[in-house]
Amino acid sequence: MDQRILPEKLHIISGSALKVLAATLMLIDHIGVLLHPDHILLFTLFGRQVTLYYLMRLIGRLAFPIFAFLIIEGYRHTRSKVRYGIALLVFALLSEIPYDLFRLHVWFSMRSQNVFFTLLLGYLGICAYEGLRKRWFLRAGSIALLLLVSFFLHADYGMTGFCTVVLMYALRDRELLRDVVGVAALSSGWKAALAFVPLAFYNGKRGFIKGRVLKYAFYLFYPVHLLILYFIRVRFLG
Known about the structure:
By secondary structure, the protein is mainly alpha-helical. It contains 10 helices and 2 strands, in the order H-E-E-H-H-H-H-H-H-H-H-H. It has one domain.
């Protein structure tokens, strides 16, 4: 039985609203990366100087748990598990050059892979967890293998990102426990805790992002915004 934290009348946020929120948080995070090194001091809190860069990166830590949740919802509601996985793979490949240009300043590198690879591996972990229920040994082995792939591939958020997706799915019907474990699994810890607040208001509805065009436009936002930020850096920031 689904154990929700808030009463049903407070479930007012759709999946589309969560997508827009996650994309906005991610954009703030990446603008923070663009500003680094930053010496714009905003305020001092408990003797610590809080710069604009630090605040933007802090806000950006909220994005990944929401994206992980959206992958789980995608798995639960997609008409084709295979087609959904292929779409994640395609956009992971499309995003790699923009990611490398923006984050690593090279056209291609194996030092780190973009977050679509993390979400893809997490999605495959969910498929293994759900599809191999009657073969527990094979299920455990498959998830362990995917965990190793996430480590050696150096996907964004690494093994903690993969574990977050799979654990959030396994605990999907126990919302409070899911949130606690999700925060504990992420290396950013308490910084990601606030991401679970909007998830508590989720109403289970798709919202205004419907159809293939808007769906893939949302996916394209990731590589496109990275390219735009890269060209801003080259053109205006040197």
